[in-house]
Design brief:
- The structure is a single chain.
- This protein is α+β, with helices and mostly antiparallel strands.
- The chain has two domains: 10-168, Beta-Lactamase (2-Layer Sandwich), CATH 3.30.450.40; 182-352, Reverse transcriptase/Diguanylate cyclase domain (Alpha-Beta Plaits), CATH 3.30.70.
- The chain has helices at residues 10-20, 29-42, 77-80, 102-105, 141-163, 165-173, 176-181, 192-208, 223-230, 232-249, 273-288, 316-332, 346-352; strands spanning 46-52, 56-63, 69-71, 87-89, 112-119, 125-133, 212-220, 255-260, 263-270, 292-294, 297-299, 303-309, 338-341.
- The strands form three sheets. The protein has a six-stranded antiparallel beta sheet.
- The chain is globular and about 70 Å long.
- One of its GO terms (molecular function) is diguanylate cyclase activity.
């Protein structure tokens, strides 16, 4: 096996990548759509936006691969960032550099790879937009140009994201190691630790902007049946896709977390109950609108949502309990619906305990 060489400008390249603050951040709905479209366009099983880190490649967006990262020393993208243009391996079995690579001889049994480097404004290659497939493939000249065009779109979006106010706030609030500990490895949204971190912070930010902190407690309906009837791999795919749909249904500044199991909590800043309910309805319809592909099956699933507005005098944990209580009512009233819990002072809190 041929491991990728280290670029001569690796120290600077790595510093540029670190400065982008892309590593170990939540999945992005726009990049998720891009890899989905690219996968359909090129008819390949797997599409990745891969960032080549010190000793790993980490996937900012992925379709068709369940793991969030792989070692750099076996990566094809490590080779791709050394190129000025497309790095193409049409059949790994016929290429002595890669025929004995672990990801060729073991799952995902890679036979085809095409990686277009992604560059920063300073011209450093930080990763790739890449295609992977378990069968050999050939790319025409037109397809090669099209892949380069799609990589340009990915580059442009990453640059805009780096410049955004939301990204600046994230860089100021959390170190990379903190982010890594707060990211759910399966769904690539914030985990329970992330929820606990952002909950008081978002309430403070809402008050500073004369808004209200909205909490949406979301739970997939009858999710246990998915695991029981189709296995845990199918269940993992459902959770991944639901996280994508929830993230796409809310706004870029909203915080999406997986609090555990099939439960997700969204933190948002809104003006009133009506605005919060609209966000809850967008989440509900995004899950129910079309079936979810889970391996060889398509599953029609729904989600129930409980929501609450945190009062200025209320501990946000108490507001979260009210949202959970509203979720309980949504389940009891038929599921696949949005219920709201109003704040009624200490009386409401006592009723929840």
């Amino acid at each position: 096996m041929l491991s990728p060489e280290i670029p001569v400008n690796e120290r600077i390249r790595q510093q540029v990548l670190d400065n982008q603050e892309l590593l170990d951040t939540p999945a992005d709905p726009y990049l998720d759509v891009l890899v989905k479209v690219v996968g359909e366009m090129f008819e390949v099983k797997t599409v990745l936006i891969s960032l080549v880190d010190r000793d790993r490649q980490w996937f900012k967006a992925r379709r068709g691969l369940d793991v969030p990262e792989t070692p750099r020393n076996i990566s094809f993208c490590g080779h791709a960032i050394l190129q000025d243009d497309l790095f193409l391996v049409e059949d790994t079995h016929l290429d002595t550099r890669f025929s004995d690579n672990p990801i060729v001889t073991n799952p995902p049994f890679l036979r085809f790879y095409a990686g277009q480097p992604l560059y920063t404004e300073s011209g450093h290659a930080i990763g790739t937009l890449c295609l992977l497939h378990p069968k050999p493939k050939h790319l025409s000249s037109k397809q090669k140009r099209r892949l380069k065009d799609m990589a340009t779109l990915a580059e442009g979006y990453l640059k805009l994201r780096h410049m955004s106010e939301h990204a600046k706030e994230l860089r100021a609030a959390l170190s990379r190691e903190q982010r890594k500990a707060m990211l759910d490895s399966l769904t690539q949204v914030w985990n329970r630790a992330g929820l606990e971190h952002f909950l008081p912070r978002e309430q403070t930010r809402a008050e500073e902007r004369d808004l209200k902190l909205g909490l949406l407690f979301c739970d997939l309906d009858y999710f246990k049946r998915v695991n029981d009837q189709h296995g845990h791999d199918a269940g993992d795919k459902v959770l991944w896709e639901c996280a994508r749909r929830i993230t796409a249904a809310v706004r870029p500044q909203d915080i999406v977390t997986r609090s555990g199991g099939e439960e997700f909590v969204v933190l948002t800043q809104v003006h009133d109950e009506e605005e919060l309910r609209r966000i809850g309805e967008r989440i509900r319809t995004s899950v129910a609108r079309t079936p979810i592909e889970a391996g060889e099956v398509e599953l029609e699933l729904t989600i129930s949502v409980g929501c609450a507005l945190a009062d200025a005098q209320e501990n946000p944990e108490r507001a979260l309990k009210r949202a959970d209580k509203a979720l309980y009512h949504a389940k009891g009233n038929g599921r696949n619906r949005v219920e709201f819990s109003a704040y009624e002072g200490k009386k409401t809190y006592d009723a929840l305990n």
